[in-house]
Amino acid sequence: MSRCIAVIMGSSCPLGAAARQRSVPLLARPGRGVTPGQRGPEDSLTVTPRVAKTARVSRTSRRMVPAALTLILLTGTAGCGALTQWGLPTEVTALEHGLESGNLAGLRTSNGTDPGADLNALTSGMDGVRPQVTPGRISVNGQKATVPLTYDWAFPAGTWHYDATATYSRTGGKWALDWAPTTVHPSLSATTRLVHRRTQATRGQILGHGGVPIVKERDTFTLGLDKSTIPADKVDDSARRIATALGIDQQRYLDRVHGAGAIAFVDALTIRADRAQVSPDFIATPGARIQKGVRQLAPTATFAQGVLGSVGTADANQAKASGGTILEGDPIGVGGLQQRYDAQLRGKPGDRVIIAPRDTPAGQSADPPAIFNATPTAGAALETTLDESTQTKAEQALSGVHGSAALVAVDTTSGALLAAATSPDDAANPTATFGRFAPGSTFKVVTSLALLRSGLTPDSALDCPPNVTVDGRTFTNYSEFPSRGLGRTTLRMAVSNSCNTAMIGQRDRITPQQLTDAAASLGLGKDHDAGFPAFYGSVPPPANPVGGAEALIGQGLVEASPMALAGVAASVAGGHTVVPYLLEAHRPTADAAPLTAQEATALQTIMQSVVTDGTASALRGTLTGAKTGTAEYGTDNPPKTHAWMIGYRDGVAVAAYVGDGTSGAASAGPLLKAFLGS
């Protein structure tokens, strides 16, 4: 008796294992003319199969309690058995899980329909998004039962929330679902389905120097395969033909086509509308389609691509890894700033759901009013220091270079990175800002600062012998070193002629730490959180005396990027420590001993002499101050060499790097001359 009293008071009812797991409370009202284990056709019963709640008992219900207790004494647990004997809570749970997973296999229906197949059709346009379904209070009225269903579809732009109803019939002693499309949404029918449409947010622009947009929306054509327009057995052949016609990887494109839906458009290549030259072989392929659109693009396909990156489309793996924030086919950043700041630039796409005919492909259905519409949130702009004109000139200077090469320009006052260009062969590699190379004799600017701090002046006397031996290792000057530069000379002329032996001969005047400190005062050798791929150089302690001698001439363990060496030139020209930066939000702070005005003046005298009297004399009139460099690398005999030149003029410091060059003057110098003009 106590168990049935608990039923009337709204506590849990013993409905079997499934119901006990779901904490199913029950409030039963007595029927008429019933016997234990049976319900009359006019009986009604209400059950909440979700979260256990304390039932509210009205005044009327309280007045009914004595009569109910009397009836329960006669009927035992009839109210509980009405549900458990025919398994309705279990059926509701199965429906809930099936709607959430998309698998209704094995679900019992009263009308002989296949709910699984119909559910697939109803939600085939929802891009794989599944809802969360919450059943409400079960209401039983004789041989019929209804269950309110609350749907929550989670989209990046917001959650779509609505209510639907599932109905059940009791036949043959069991409950069965009266499946209908309205179980999924009240407005669906046997000929319609739900279609999700992504409303892309406006991607944030990448701004250059002065806030001028350098990456902005430009017209495009996207070429691809529309699977909805050709028979399924022709899809692979068309995909192969499209890949061949567009010169893309055939197998990778086939994999993407296989992974897309049966009526999907699978993009293959996006090209700029102002340079559109579409292959006739592509146009002749069945299923080939061209979509007009816009995409965030730089001024040219190569414009600072190693720094900026590009915008591509998400594949299935990227969409899965995003946890639902990105769908397959969404625009995403690929490499560089576009990838690192993708969340900021991408914004939040909008989401719309419409009801469309089942036999119309998702991308081709009309645009009726949406039953759900969450508007997109535009991405935020990213501010950089790149100057479009300067970057364009730098890339033009490198356009004819084969192999790895880079050219960097830095503002000598602020350290703003104005250009970071790479050769066509380097493509998207961030060589200009992130490359790690021995700087060779350009590092003699750093060695000169260390020697100045040790007490020398630009006119201090030094010896420049043909060779010098350190711990059994013999060092010489470069093969074309002028004989007039040998013998007694000055620090200024030793650097102007790039005398290795003179620098190494002063090794006892400075310690490795003093050399490292001098580099830091010129913005080189200390790491900074620059917010983009940036290498500011490395001047580690040498392992032995030979390594110490190598460091004085920019060999051994010393490394720098073109950007870092442009910073060295900018520090000399600007008269203070300059650390190059690209993003206003990540502007580094120099924390080294500052470069003094006296030191800067002495270094300017030395670098100006390189142009007027030394190895950069071919750039007289183009550069105010400079330093050339040639750095050996690799294990070949004779070794291969990197070619360098750094310099400054009119508030701009520059660095040119050629991966395989003959000398700084012969290989890197002409690049700076082309960049700056004669």
In words, what does this structure look like?
- With 678 residues, the protein is α+β, with helices and mostly antiparallel strands.
- It folds into 4 domains: 2-84, no CATH class; 88-191, NTF2-like, domain 1 (Nuclear Transport Factor 2, Chain: A, Roll), CATH 3.10.450.100; 206-346, Penicillin-binding protein 2a (Domain 2) (Alpha-Beta Complex), CATH 3.90.1310; 430-649, Beta-lactamase.
- The chain is 30% helix and 24% strand.
- It is built from 23 helices and 26 strands.
- The strands form 7 sheets. Strands 1, 2, 3, 4, 5, 6 and 7 form a 7-stranded antiparallel β-sheet that branches. Strands 9, 10, 11, 12 and 17 form a 5-stranded mixed β-sheet that branches. Strands 19-18-26-25-24 form a 5-stranded antiparallel β-sheet, with helices on both faces.
- The longest helix is centred in the first third of the chain and has 17 residues, at 59-75.
- The protein starts with a helix and ends with a helix.
- Mean pLDDT is 86; it is low at 1-44 and 48-81.
- Belongs to the class-D beta-lactamase family. Belongs to the transpeptidase family.
- One of its GO terms (cellular component) is plasma membrane.
